[in-house]
Amino acid sequence: MSQADPQPPVPEEPTVELPLLELRDGLSDVVDTDPALTEIIEAFRAGTGSVAVDAERASGYRYSHRAYLVQLRREGSGSALVDPIPFGDLSALGDAIIDAEWIIHAANQDLACLAEVGMIPRKVFDTELAGRLLGYPKVGLASLVSEVLGYRMRKEHSAADWSTRPLPAPWLVYAALDVEMLIELRDAIEAELRREGKWEWAEQEFAAILSAPPREPKPDPWRRTSGMHRVRNRRSLAVVRALWEARDQIASSADISPGRILPDAAIVEAAAAMPADRDTLQKLTAFKGRGAHRHMRTWWEAVDHARHLPDTELPKQGPRYDGPPPARAWADRDPDAAARLSAARTAVSEIAEAHRLPTENLLSPDTIRRLAWAPPADADLTAVSTFLRDHHARDWQIALTAETLTNAIATEPAAKID
């Protein structure tokens, strides 16, 4: 072949199409009667091994975080879709599987709503958390099932309104698929954790999930309103607070997601515009929706109340902190602490990278900040280890980080080096 002859095309690598995950046993009826629940309880009591558990909420549609569907699968029991709404309490079902390990993907998202219906595990295996410990870049259920087991999952109904009744059949198939491969996924991931010497880490993490105290509500939740960077003064902050609290009361009473009552954009727009009367308020772009118009009197009363608050009752410009101030302020307020934080973050990041871990799973960023801001008076290995343990670090985390952090916080700040 001469140099002028065209070169033959290089064949492309064939695209491997993963098989679509299907229900092995077909779609079962939703359990929503007492006889059906009794039957399922006995079936799962008689099953063997771990139990795959999932729950569907109506986030984005409802104010509450209650479970609107509970899915389970167990060897010898098959799969079940349980509607908790007709029963309210599913503690008998929880008791039937209480001695089994519950496999839950992203357990922190589901444990609260499961506990609300009386289902509280004694032992869990969190497949999402395990995926993080193994360094998978994507730890969503569909991604792990694809990467580890080689199946493609349907995810088109992940944002559905699960409070809908009756639930459409395609949604139920989607929900059932969420537990279809959890047992196999758990076994494959355990094997990988053991190969990498991370199984004890995972056991400690799973135990910590169950022993964690209930989350305390954050102070000033209205400060998490999206777009708050546009709010420039304390009077405007008062408008945000008043509208947020008025919206929250309506949303709670109606069990509707707050954003469906009044979007955050409307709250921020009103705070920025500071309207002097109701007509001006309702002419704002974000207040022209049906939801905003329905409660216009309430919105105006909230804005007007904030406009006339005495200065002494206006919210502070910055949020309240129960710990160190924002790290961006450290360089000016305490340069030594800023230097300790930089050294500690670098040290933890290097350890995490060496062990193929997300930094936040090696050690909580909040714990690192607190250690750098107010280290123990005797910053030796014992004191640092005790500090980490007091801030809920697990033994495996302390073993990996305590010595390096001790050296990091004892390092003389660069600004003081001659």
TrEMBL record:
Signal peptide: none annotated. InterPro entries: 3'-5'_exonuclease_dom, Exo_C, HRDC-like_sf, HRDC_dom, HRDC_dom_sf, RNase_D-like, RNaseH-like_sf, RNaseH_sf. Residues 233-313 form the HRDC domain. SUPFAM superfamilies: HRDC-like, Ribonuclease H-like. It holds the Pfam family DNA_pol_A_exo1. This is Ribonuclease D.
